[in-house]
Amino acid sequence: MSRIIVRVLGALGASMLGATLGVLAVTAPAQAASRDGICDAGEFCYYYNSSHAGSISDHTGSLADYGSTQPGCYEFKGAGGGQGLCVKNNAASAWNRTSNTVRVYYNSDYDGSYAYQDFAPGAKTNLNATLKNNNASHQFLSAGATYPAKDDYPYKGQGTGIDPWNFYKGQCTSFAAWALRSRVGVPFHNQYAGQARWGNAKEWVAAAGRAGVPVHNSPKAGDIAVRLGGTYGHVAFVTRVNSNGTFEVDEYNYVSADKYSHRTVSVGTANSQFSKFIRFK
What we know:
Elements: E1 2-4, E2 44-49, E3 53-59, E4 93-96, E5 101-105, E6 115-119, E7 124-126, E8 137-141, H1 172-184, H2 204-211, E9 215-216, E10 224-227, E11 234-241, E12 247-252, E13 260-265, E14 276-278
Antiparallel strand pairs: 1-6, 2-3, 2-4, 4-7, 5-6, 5-8, 9-14, 10-11, 10-14, 11-12, 12-13
């Protein structure tokens, strides 16, 4: 199923957050390997033509950017029409032979702010009208889905002014709104789901309750983690949950004012922890 995200503007809302100390760590997305132009079990495969005809480009992991020119791009490798062409913006159908849901994005870098299409395990279907010949990246998701740690925020370096979602640029709330829109595909903004305002970070749990958005006591990748303590609270985007119970977050305005950081944290009420998790999907 595809989703096209449209920017929605609402009334002015603000979130301010003081800076403290943390640890920066960034991981890279998985890369495809052992590509031979045959769609084997465990692979996600693009086809050059609709209805699974033409050359195949097979992948065993997420790819944030296929490249757009030869040499060096990820190409269609199998026999048939399209063989040797770059896969970016050239695929018409796909077959997901993995045990993960695979999400195909209209933009590179797993940017779903405009459009994406999900392929459930075993799905074998055409790309929809929006994604056909407009496939720029894909990401393997699952019940234990992870999101690559990255500073993809479009207003990096800006600490003043209002973003299109009606939060202050450079604040944790602005980055969290961007992450929900671009990575999860939720058209979030400061008046989302009919709320007067989601407001400061510490107000998001109450706003979620009023809006009917589930709030949990343990994290899942894709959640918004909330710290309720402090003057304004703090929110961050959960990128992965680790087997030892810790989890990782992408965030803004925590390690340094108006800047990105990635941390491994735990559930709790300390200033460096998060106690609530808003699950939009």
